[in-house]
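Budget justification aside, the reviewers requested a transparent look at the raw inputs and outputs of the sequence design task funded under Objective 1. We therefore reproduce one unedited record. The lines immediately below are the structure tokens for a 604-residue chain.
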């Protein structure tokens, strides 16, 4: 068994978004013969249409490959693919915990970017052997010496450690596999100890229940065992176990150090959480593996069906989606403006966007999504602390002692020519510069502390716009801080539209109110009467716009005749408009709820 374990290599590929991670994974599968040429397709490990369209990995995958090293021996290579976006940072950390080594990809044309650094530091913290790889070397007009210099100066690699490859052409990919065999240590663990297996991902299967993707750290797992999950204290009969090659292939056992899957038979992904420890019910492990924490939503939004009759359809769609996404949390809520719907929590803005698109595409639900918000901590005069994720739930400010909002530590890498506009943008978002250094002579690294609520709205779009697409961003939650925050309500035709309410800083409230009412005036369609749009804090109106009534010439049919005929028609129209104003409702389109996202922050 020791001999077998010495020939196992567990590794992952980490990189910034769009640095060629999935393309390189395709070449690895091709070169090792894991997937035949006939079955091969682009983005082999991306199974969702959304992943293919957006060019990002949303769901991590694992695959077992075989490779003959330079010593003539055959090695078992377990590649654990990782999500590429900052929203899925915790999943990345669990995937790294299942490995002993990592290929760190750097795009030859773009160099080191924010998430490259974040993922590299994460890998080093977990004690992984990091192999630096400069990818896309087949691109024209690239300077490899500059990228090598970046890796030397920023992450301390030596030139002889850095490998060159092209995921597209396959150049240098064999050298990567040899480097993994030679540099990455084999897994360590005690095969005689009670079973401890790390769950680094899971998915739901209609026939097998929750399928956990595991790395066996200690012990051995045989088929037909009864398993126990330590964090949730759930027991279940093991239905099937096996490996991904890349499709599921059943086996009779998973040995110490191996990576595979376990069909648990559980009916809820929430019972089988990422980071949990799987052990045997008959001989449980005394201590769980370190690093587990429950997924914590950071961004919240309301989902409402466009047609009230579709409420049941939306609920069923969310239930089905939750089976495959344990990070998605939701609960029913009611809005005066939108009726019955759900308040849902997400890991970040990309996660929200993915869930919304999947609901609309896969379950054919026509949705209205409210603008995203974060979770605030409210301390009342009585000393109670309550958390709210919906601005409409903010208590009367006369009862509030302090409002705390989540802050993040943001790392921005930007060309030196665009440092000024990026600093101006960050300061406008209430950011505080904590550090500034240079990655190389042409690029600066800025570290900011800033409120999460400012980051999730349009910060990333503005960052790309002001840097002409060259800036990169990575952030992590830091702490909650007290701030002078108020709830800005939007009134349409005298009625508060609770779904449009936002929590903002008092100094920016007037500016945001003017921008929001101006935007809504363009989006809300004309009615048969004037519609007033107001932004207010409590009873104090900060801004107002009016959507003018549709004009209908009721006297067009009067060709001459007495003036009293025209006056009679105009009076009749006036009375009708007054009555309509009393009983009429203003239909607010989906674009109006997204207006908050499109506000450009021009405040000083």
């Amino acid at each position: 068994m020791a001999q077998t374990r010495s020939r196992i290599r567990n590794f992952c590929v980490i990189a910034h978004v769009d640095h060629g991670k999935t393309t390189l994974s395709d070449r690895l599968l091709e070169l090792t013969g894991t997937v035949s040429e006939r079955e091969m397709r682009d983005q082999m490990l991306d199974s969702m249409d959304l992943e293919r369209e957006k060019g990002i990995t949303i769901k991590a995958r694992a695959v077992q490959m075989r490779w003959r090293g330079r010593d003539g021996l055959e090695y078992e290579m377990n590649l654990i693919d990782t999500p590429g976006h900052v929203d899925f940072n915790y999943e990345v950390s669990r995937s790294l915990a299942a490995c002993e080594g990592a290929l760190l990809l750097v795009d030859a044309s773009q160099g080191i970017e924010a998430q490259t650094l974040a993922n590299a530091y994460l890998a080093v913290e977990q004690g992984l052997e990091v192999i630096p790889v400069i990818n896309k070397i087949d691109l024209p007009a690239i300077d490899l010496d500059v990228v090598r210099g970046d890796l030397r100066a920023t992450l301390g690699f030596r030139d002889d450690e850095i490998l060159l490859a092209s995921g597209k052409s396959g150049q240098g990919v064999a050298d990567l596999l040899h480097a993994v065999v030679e540099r990455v240590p084999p897994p360590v663990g005690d095969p005689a100890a009670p079973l401890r297996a790390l769950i680094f991902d899971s998915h739901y299967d209609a026939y097998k229940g929750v399928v956990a993707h595991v790395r066996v750290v200690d012990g051995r797992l045989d088929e037909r065992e009864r398993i126990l999950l330590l964090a949730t204290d759930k027991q279940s009969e093991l239905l099937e176990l096996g490996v991904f090659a890349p499709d599921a292939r059943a086996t009779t056992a998973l040995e110490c150090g191996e990576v595979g899957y376990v069909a648990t038979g559980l009916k809820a992904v929430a019972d089988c959480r990422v980071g949990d420890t799987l052990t045997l019910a008959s001989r449980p492990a005394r201590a769980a593996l370190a690093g587990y924490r429950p997924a914590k939503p950071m961004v919240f939004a309301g989902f409402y069906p466009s047609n009230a009759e579709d409420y049941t359809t939306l609920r069923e769609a969310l239930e089905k989606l939750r089976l495959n996404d344990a990070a998605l949390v939701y609960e029913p809520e009611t809005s005066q403006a939108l009726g019955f719907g759900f308040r849902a929590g997400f890991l970040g803005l990309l996660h929200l966007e993915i869930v919304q698109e999947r609901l609309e595409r896969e379950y054919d639900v026509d949705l209205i999504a409210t603008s995203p918000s974060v979770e605030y901590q409210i301390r009342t005069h009585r000393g109670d602390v309550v958390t709210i994720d919906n601005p409409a739930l903010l208590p009367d400010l006369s009862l509030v002692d302090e409002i705390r909002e989540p802050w993040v530590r943001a790392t921005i890498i930007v060309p030196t020519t665009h440092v000024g506009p990026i600093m101006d943008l960050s300061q406008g978002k209430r950011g505080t510069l904590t550090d500034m250094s240079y990655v190389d002579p042409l690029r600066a690294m800025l570290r900011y502390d800033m409120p999460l609520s400012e980051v999730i709205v349009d910060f990333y779009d503005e960052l790309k716009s002001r840097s002409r697409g060259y800036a990169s961003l990575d952030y992590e939650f830091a702490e909650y801080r007290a701030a002078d925050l108020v709830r800005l309500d939007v009134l349409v035709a005298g009625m508060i539209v609770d779904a449009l309410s936002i929590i903002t800083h008092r100094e920016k409230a007037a500016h945001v109110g003017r921008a929001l009412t101006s935007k809504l005036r363009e989006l809300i369609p004309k009615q048969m009467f004037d519609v007033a749009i107001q932004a207010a804090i409590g009873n104090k109106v900060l801004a107002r716009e009016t959507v003018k009534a549709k004009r209908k010439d009721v006297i067009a049919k009067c060709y001459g005749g007495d003036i009293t005929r025209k006056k009679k028609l105009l009076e009749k129209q006036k009375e009708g408009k007054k009555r309509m104003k009393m009983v009429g409702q203003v239909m607010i389109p989906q674009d109006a709820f997204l207006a908050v996202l499109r506000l450009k922050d021009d405040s000083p």
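The CA atoms of residues 243 and 260 lie 4 Å apart. The radius of gyration is 28 Å. Computational costs for records of this kind are itemized in the attached budget.
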